[in-house]
Design goal:
alpha/beta; six-stranded mixed sheet; two-stranded antiparallel sheet; 6 helices
């Protein structure tokens, strides 16, 4: 699926993966978080060697990576708080008091400090995506991967989500790699990787990010 892909993401960067449908953007993201096997070459993410990554190591890799999906992927039968603690338990958290404190902390960071008791269907699309971002932050990740996080949102809501991601990058120094095909929001990142036919076609730095 991917070949001749060679790039480095430095701490604190905000990078866009851009390209047409089928160019390999989502496949690259899935490889980075251990969902697709790394067959040939060399790759390292958050201290893990992707070529030697074993299935039992994937939860530990994902504790160092936050993932934001286009379609939110929230559990509809659980509250916001329970959605976050479900992920925490699956990545090794055990202390209930510490978990509850962390959940409240990340919900406040995304502006949903008073929405923990809500069910996903009681939230707007923008709020659901904020929950998805909060979920990505619970393990204080070294890297956040966002796959079309504004794709299912209207433009004003999508812009608000982008403002939140920019704040996470600039104020919390989170490293972000984001897939997008929307040129309107491409102005937010300072480096663009263009993919085509499963390879990186160009790696372009932008002097200024968001105006």
């Amino acid at each position: 699926v991917l070949n001749h892909v060679d790039f480095t993401v430095n701490a604190g960067e905000f990078i866009y993966l851009v390209g047409r449908t089928g160019s390999g953007k989502s496949s690259l993201m899935r490889t980075l978080y251990g969902d697709l096997p790394f067959v040939e070459g060399e790759g390292h993410v958050a201290g893990f060697n992707l070529r030697k990554l074993k299935r039992r190591q994937v939860p530990y890799l994902r504790r160092k990576i936050g993932i934001v999906f286009q379609d939110f992927q929230l559990l509809g039968d659980r509250t916001v708080n329970e959605n976050l603690t479900f992920v925490m338990r699956s990545t090794g958290w055990k202390d209930k008091k510490a978990m509850n404190a962390k959940v409240q902390e990340v919900l406040e960071k995304v502006g949903l400090g008073n929405k923990g008791y809500k069910m996903p269907h009681e939230l707007s699309g923008g709020e659901q995506q904020r929950v998805s971002i909060a979920r990505a932050l619970v393990n204080n990740p070294e890297l956040v991967l966002a796959d079309e996080p504004t794709g299912d949102l209207d433009r004003p809501t999508g812009r608000a989500i982008m403002e939140l991601l920019v704040a996470l990058n600039r104020e919390l120094h989170k490293t972000l790699v984001m897939v997008t095909h929307d040129p309107e929001i491409a102005r937010y990142a300072r480096r663009h990787l263009l993919l085509g036919d499963g390879r990186i076609v160009s790696d372009e730095s932008v002097l200024e990010g968001r105006p």
